[in-house]
Amino acid sequence: MPPIAVTPLEDQENVSELTAHGIEHALEKSAPSQLKSASLSNSITQLPATKSQHDTPTPLAELDASLLQTTYTTSPRPVPAIGSPEMASQRVCTDHMIQAKWTSSTGWEAPTLQPYGPLSLMPTASCLHYATECFEGMKLYRGHDSKLRLFRPSLNCARMLVSTNRIALPGFPPDELLKLIVKLCATDGAKWLPKERAGSFLYIRPTMIASDPALGVQRPSEALLFVILTCFAPMDDLKGGMKLLASKDDMIRAWPGGFGYAKVGANYGPSLVAQGEARALGYHQILWLFGEECFVTEAGASNFFVVWRTREGKVQLVTACLTEQIVLDGVTRRSVLALAKERLAAGHEDLEAVEVVERKFSMAEVVEAIDEGRLIEAFGAGTAWFVAPVGLIHFRGKDYTVPMGDDGESGKYAKVLKDWLKGIMWGTNGQESHEWGYVVDEE
Q1: Which residues cross the membrane (predicted)?
Q2: What is the pLDDT of residues 297-311, one digit of tens each?
């Protein structure tokens, strides 16, 4: 049974139209510069093209990184050692953070770079009651050429605007958010990612919350944007690959007409119970399925890929499509698809040519490919897990072993795609000047 929140198919068009008009009206007030292109040309997910029937109100102040006010810490924090419990705790942040406040009466205030520390919220804050919160996941890399890099950061900033739009938070020019992220990385990067730690990274978490203290169920009139840098241990080095537990009929992550395409907190909180049970049973992530057909969507918080041979003998790289907006349009997902189309279409060294396919596919198709010996490999892809091979899927009471390549650690396609991405992120293998690598000039 689908949850009560699922909108009947015949009503989804009207709901989508209401949402689209609401998004446009919010942008008119908070970020009118983003209405120049209805589809947000720099965005990952396109906004519906609409035309307002209302007069455009006087615009409020937009987010402006050039107004940044800076206060440096007088109590610097120690940098944890690589491999230490502190590094793996995901609780240690760098010395500084970015903040910017917004109100419905004045718009965006001047952003600040300030010492890292707690936030002040009223117990009635909207984000604490109505999940008016969204975020992004990015990384700052210390390259083997000693440079600091971001990976396709404009896509993350554009996607965050899509997420804020979906949950009634204020809009902003994505380029201004990027400038603030770069400033924080430039400020703390040299200390927290020293040049002797080449090949390491910090996790970047841009977040926006509704800080409105009114308890009513309504569009928030106050919001807070903040950006932090966090120490994070690598998650993709799994011996034997990821073990996935396929979701059951009583579990659902997202549905058509919902908000699965946005990176909002409401996508993650409800999944934690199932995720905890999966880990207690020895699995790393939930493989989220949708509908009676058991369509494959995501693996935990990662996009999911299979490489299989069709019955006609063609090798395909397949992942769920974005048509119904159930699946997150991941930056790593987008990059894997682009590299596969560019570099694997005609084959590569000992790898056969690959056809890249984005479509709905079911768990039954995966099982058939395994039973018939046609499944070549599978992997998850996302910022946190990076490119993580899958070694086992438990579905309907049975374990299905996924091929892991000759070395038993990774399939060949996942390995080569991962190596290409690492080259761009860390400036190796002739990828030092790749357009996806955004070099940060550290202070």
Answers
A1: none
A2: 999 989 999 999 999
